[in-house]
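Two proteins follow. First one:
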Amino acid sequence: MMRACRERNTRFGADEAEEFVVFECRDWTSMTISESAFFRGYAGATMWCDEDGKAFRPMLKLKDFPTKGHFRDRLQRHYTDFLEVLGSLLPEYTHPEAGPLNLGSRFPSTALAPDLGPKTYIAYGRRPELGEGDNVTKLHLDLSDAVNVLSHVEPDDPDTEGGSDGGATDGAVWDIFRREDTDKLMRFLEEHSNEFFHTSHEEQDGDIRHARRRLSEMGFEHPIHCQRFMLTARHLEKLREEHGVRPWHFVQREGEAVFIPAGCAHQVRNLRSCTKIAVDFVSPESVPQCLKMCEEYRKLTDKEDKLQVKLQVMWSAQWALQQLLRSEQLDPAVIGEDLASSLLDAGTRESLPKRPRKKSSKRPMNSRARAQSAETCSPLEFPSEEEEEPTPPPFLQGATKTA
C-alpha cells in the first residue's frame, strides 16, 4: 500500500511524504500523521506515550482511502485487482460498473451517481479485549448492502507475541445483527446507556486531557445511527439474557469476504493491523429496507440521504426495459409504441461515445455585452453558460411536476 501511495503521488504531482488524516479509536478524534509514520505503526514498529508517560500502541484508523478522487482513478492497478476478486463474489450484485442486479451501477454518465466505492480501510488492531477503544468500527447501520474483503493482515512480531503463530491470518471479529432484531437492540441500548462511555478531548488547566463521560449524560438522537456504542462480550451476554438477541459472531481471516445486508447493525474489532477493501451495492431485495432507512435519516439533524435509492430504482427500471426491448422479450405494444421508442432512443444516446467539450477562447461577457448580444441574437443562438441537465427517464418525461 505504501508503494501505491508513492505511485499515486508521483502520478498526480504530490509530495512523496504525504500526510494522512487518521482517527484515534479511543476517542475518535482526528489527527494528521505522515504516511511513513502511520505504516510504521501499522507494522508495530513504533510506540506512543500517554499523558502519564506510559508507552502504549494507539488504535489508529485511516478511513475511506483514497480520500480525494475515486479509487478507480487514483489506484488503478489495485482497482483492477479488486474487480478480479469480485468476479468470484456474486459479481451480478457486487460489480460496481456492470452488475446487472446492482441498482447502483445503472446511473447514466450524465447523472451524478452516489460514490459506492470501493474504498480502503486501514487500521491497527490488538488481540485482547480491553473495552472502549477496541472497535475500529462502532455499532452502526449502512444504507446499502456491502461486501468487505480482508486483503492483508499484519503478522505478529515473534519477540512481542512469544513466537506464537497460531491463527496468524485472524484479522477481525465481527458482530452482525439481524434486521428483525434492530428494535430490540435499540431498546437495550437506550435502557443501558448509562453503562456505555465515550471519551473525548477536553481542555483542563491549559492542557488537553481525555474526558470520559457516560452516553446517558451526552444524549443522542438515535442509539445506532449515532455510532457511539460498542458492545463488549459482557454487553452481548446481557443482551441475550434480556431480549434473546444474538448476533452472528465470527472471525474474518485474510482473503475472506463478509457480506453485510442493508439494515443489519454491525460492529468490527481488529485483532491485528488489517487492510480491508469494501464496496457498497444496492440489491433489488434490499430496496424496501433502504427506503425505510432513508426515511429515518430524514428525521436526524446530522445525516443525509446520499444513496438516492428512488433514483436508482428509476434508472434501473429504464435499463431493464431497454434490455427486454432489445432482446425482443417484451412486446412494445405492452408499454406503448411511443414509450418503447423513447426508451430505445435514450439507450442509444447513452451508449454513444462522449465527445470532449471544446474550451471556449472567448472572454466572459459583462452585463452590458450580454444585453447587446441578446438584442442581436435569436433565442436559439443566445450564448448560455448553464450546464446541460441530465435527461430524466423517458417514462417520467411526461409526468406533471408537483410542489
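Second one, unrelated to the first:
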Amino acid sequence: MKNWTSIPITVLGRGSFLLGVVTIALIGVGCNLSAPRSTPSLPSESLQTAPNPAVDATPATGAERVYLADNRVSFLPPTGFTPLTPEEIELKFPNANRPQQVYANDRGTVAVAITLSEVSLTPEQLPELQQVMESSLEQAQPELQWIERGLVEINGTRWLKLESITPALDTDIRNDMYFTSLAGQMIGFNFNATVDADEAVQAELLQSRDSIQLQP
C-alpha cells in the first residue's frame, strides 16, 4: 500500500507575522509505493499565468466536478480518480494533521490532495509565504530538488506554486503544490505522482489544476 507523509511546518515570517502550522501533503522518504490501494527553476517574484498543457484542455470524458468547502472550491479530478475513504486517508497520512480530501488512481501512484487549513492567510502574504515555505521544506526534505517556484494565476486567482521532486523509499516523487487564500484562510492543492507515472499523467494533472475554481 502506498503511504504519504504529512509534514507539519511552523511558518514564521518577519516581525510579528505568524501564519501558524501548515500541513503539507508531501510524499517523501520512507514511503512504500510498490503496492496498490486497498480499495478501489528559479525563484520568481512576478505573477504568471499557469501554462496550459499541450493537449486539448477539455476535461476527459467521465470527469465530474467536485465541490468542497460549502461549494466555495471546485475542481475536476483526473478521469478514473476516486476519493480515499477517511480510513485510507488516516492510514496514508498518519500524522494528526492531514488533508481533508484525497483523490487517487487505483494503484495509488498518483494523487490530488486538498488541505483546507485554519491558518490565516491573505493574498498579499503569498510572497512571504513562499520564502518561509521554501526554507521549511528544504529543512524537512534536505534532498528536495526544486523544479519551479513562484506566483501563478489560475482562473483569476493568484496562487503560490511550489513544484519539486523528493526521494521516497523505492522511487522519486514529483509534488506540484499550490497555495492561496480562501475567505482569509489557507487552502492547498498537491498534485503528486511517482516519476515513473508522471509523464503519462502530467497532462491530466495539469488539466485538473487548471479546472480549480474558487468562490469568495
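SUMMARY FIELD: The first helix runs from residue 86 to 92. The domain at 5-214 is CATH 3.40.1000.10 (Protein Transport Mog1p; Chain A).
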